[in-house]
Amino acid sequence: MNYLRNFTFLKRVFCNHNQKKKLAKPETIEEYYASRPFLPAADAPKNAAHFNIFRIGAPDIEDISVPFGRKDYYKICIITGNSRIHYADRTFEVQKRGLLFANPQIPYNWEPLSSNQQGFSCIFNEAFFDHFGRIKDYPVFKSGGFPVYELTAAELSVIKAIFEQIMSEKEGQFEFRDNAIRTLILQLIHSAIKMRPADNTAPEKVNAAGRITTLFLELLERQFPLENASSEIQLRSASDFATQMAVHVNHLNKSVKEITNKTTSEIIMQRLLQEAKIMLKHTSWPISDIAYALGFEGPTHFSGFIKRQLQLSPSQYRNA
Fold it and tell me: What percent of the chain is modeled with pLDDT above 90?
């Protein structure tokens, strides 16, 4: 069985090299500015901490359609007007007022559905928050979290005021301007979490179980995205993760269950399903390549997994 799979893997590597079937690399901040010549060139970062904020709908600034994909930066947007946000394997439709939190791990794009879109957009990289807390640990930026909020008129007023204050700080010359901006970004995040507490977020526990669970989740996320069809995840089972972490698998399972109220296997399978749905919808990779890349024994096992989860075959889901 192993020799057959090895042969199939080598065949895929050869074919994928020739066909160059790759996911687009995450858009960098430099590419963001290059595709928007109406933004000041001086705003482009030089491999350092970076932050910027823009008005959506300003006369001299018009946003452009962005292909579905990952971006190498964080983005927080507030939008008024009807729009649709494709985020990983989910689609959210904003009816009137929307707030979006996007991170480098998750592919997304924003599709305006009405004219006169207005609001704010701020972008920043992780380096901007160095020594100022772990921005990626907040629920709004976690895989499986809730990244899109439909706001009431009152909530819009609160959030818009924070964006206005960020804009004011950005245009100022205050010595500790960046710290003030970071504080306001955290205020945005906290305000959103208060409005819609995340049901799937467990209380943070600074103990052995919490540390083990955090490391497990980080190792799981590091395996994604898979940039080409010859890639293959290395950690797929609870035992794989336990070995990598040098802990007993029973200890890992107990810790994860205590913190998340889910089994280790449930979390792994949920993450594999999310990545499978992204690949099926947004790549042209053959289903067999997706199966092997995600660590399944073959297309049959992968197809059975998708059918159990979605009540559709991989082909049916791709074409739906």
Answer: 42
